[in-house]
Design a protein that fits this description.
OB fold (Dihydrolipoamide Acetyltransferase, E2P), 3 domains, 2-enoyl-CoA Hydratase, Chain A, domain 1, seven-stranded mixed sheet, 479 residues, alpha/beta, elongated, 20 strands, 47% helix, five-stranded mixed β-barrel
């Protein structure tokens, strides 16, 4: 075969296969049904729901969905979680194909979330609006009245936030301003739709009212009986619907995140009781379980990685080093407490929707700090009540009395209380065990639970009682 014939074969093969391959790829792409990815936004808007929505948007992008559709049925919720959901929805590449379907209600934060999509549709009998900000009481209780100056600031901020989001996505900004600010009112085509002094909430019929020249819908593109009918209307009858399904772990995570402040408070209380009754282990195990569930909820809900629990364990180890190996050194316990604080903050702060961001943002940490302070304050109140109750009742005796082999035989240690006149300030004895800082000491042949003032006191060291605080007896080593 000559070189010329080889060149002829090479130039003849590509033109034969290339048009066939291109035609096949074109037909395959043309024949593919549009994919509509549906993300349910249901129940209260909280950090765990924001995590679920972020995962849904990522999956929609990974599967190259043609449409992103939010199915809304929410009474609203936290503003920071709402902002995360809005940012997640706005990260979908094809913004022109983002839609909201208000199945029953999109109240408060739900209305803001709906405004982050290009088109809004509503089911028969559904409502949207009432987005004025409120402050919940401690533990997520009933709404509290905001101070007037602060209320004006926060209403102004959310008014601007709602208008800005609406403008970005082609909605009437005045509609969302009227949902936030009762002093705004709403006037269209010279007619008063909503008088001043009221917050705007629209039914599906009111939301599709047409106004202006040329006429346009007030907010909703129309009323559609079912989500399937909406998909057929926007993407064609052959469109594929894929709905995000929260995993069982995400359901568990959402529940644990909701009770996270309670778990943190309960863990602190049980830790205090273990400190008051060292060696019982029951309260210590309970505290450990509460803290484990606290971190597990954030991890499972996708609000944090393994870093917070790693910091927590490192902090516990440093505190143990101080107590058992370097008593009185201070640095390990101070560092350990700082790591515990950072671990709690990190777990409560969660992660933002920004890809590749390793740490929560400063506003996230600020919000988490308020919740952490609330949990600590609640624990402090309960601990103060418990301390008073333990001293004035017989419960202290049951918590602190346990069988111990004494130097003179077997017998119970006495409760750390002045009421029984077992001991008094100034009594001297010796440490029956090492005090790190808690332990026991012998006074007149009686073994009593004591605690040092922070110093390590070896077993057998002479000690003197310098203070009795309820059921807590403080001793110092004699020189």
């Amino acid at each position: 075969m000559t070189p010329c014939s080889r060149r002829t074969r090479r130039s003849w093969v590509p033109p034969f296969f290339l048009p066939l391959l291109l035609s096949f790829l074109f037909l395959a792409q043309a024949g593919a049904a549009p994919l509509v990815y549906v993300i349910p936004v249901q129940d209260e808007v909280d950090p765990s729901l924001a995590s679920v929505v972020r995962r849904g948007v990522r999956e929609a992008v990974r599967e190259r969905a043609d449409y992103l559709l939010l199915r809304l049925d929410t009474p609203g919720g936290r503003a920071d979680s709402m902002e995360e959901i809005v940012r997640a929805v706005e990260s979908f590449p094809n913004q022109e194909n983002t839609l909201s379907y208000v199945d029953k209600k999109a109240a408060s934060a739900g209305a803001f979330i709906a405004s982050s999509t290009r088109r809004i549709y509503m089911a028969p009998g559904s409502v949207i609006g009432a987005a004025t900000p409120v402050m919940l009481g401690a533990g997520g209780g009933s709404p509290e009245k905001l101070p007037e100056s602060y209320e004006r600031k926060i209403v102004s901020f959310f008014n601007a936030t709602g208008r800005a989001t609406a403008q970005r996505h082609g909605h009437n900004p005045e509609v969302f301003a009227a949902m936030v600010d009762g002093d705004q009112g709403l006037v269209l085509d010279g007619a008063t739709v909503l008088p001043k002094g009221r917050i705007l909430t629209l039914t599906n019929v009111e939301a599709e009212h047409r106004y202006g020249t040329p006429p346009r819908n007030l907010l909703s593109e129309g009323t559609v009986p079912t989500l399937e009918a909406l998909v057929a209307q926007i993407a064609g009858p052959g469109a594929t619907i894929e709905t995000l399904k929260p995993t069982g772990f995400e359901h568990i995570g959402r529940f644990l995140v909701r009770i996270a402040p309670l778990l943190l408070t309960l863990g602190m209380i049980l830790g205090y009781l273990e400190f008051k009754a060292p060696g019982t282990w029951l309260f210590g195990i309970g505290a450990a379980v509460c803290f484990l569930l606290f971190f597990l909820g954030s991890y499972v809900a996708g609000l944090s990685g393994y870093e917070p629990i790693a910091l927590f364990l490192l902090g516990v180890v440093l505190i143990a080093v101080e107590v058992f190996f370097l008593p009185g050194f201070i640095v390990p316990v101070a560092t350990g407490l700082l790591l515990l604080l950072l671990a709690f903050l990190w777990a409560m702060a969660g992660q933002t929707s920004e890809p590749g961001q390793a740490l929560p943002s400063l506003p996230d940490f600020r919000g988490a700090l308020f919740r952490l302070v609330g949990a600590v304050a609640g624990a402090a109140v309960v601990i103060a009540l418990l301390a008073r109750f333990l001293v004035t009742s017989g419960v202290a005796r049951g918590l602190t009395t346990r069988p111990i082999e004494e130097a003179t035989g077997h017998g119970p240690s006495l409760p750390a209380t002045a009421e029984g006149h077992a001991v008094r300030v100034g009594d001297e004895g010796r440490a029956a065990s090492a005090l790190r800082p808690a332990g026991t000491a012998l006074f007149g042949g009686r073994r009593i639970d004591v605690v040092s003032n922070g110093d390590f006191i070896p077993e057998g060291t002479p000690v003197r009682i310098v203070g009795i605080e309820g059921i807590r007896i403080v001793v110092v080593a004699l020189a």
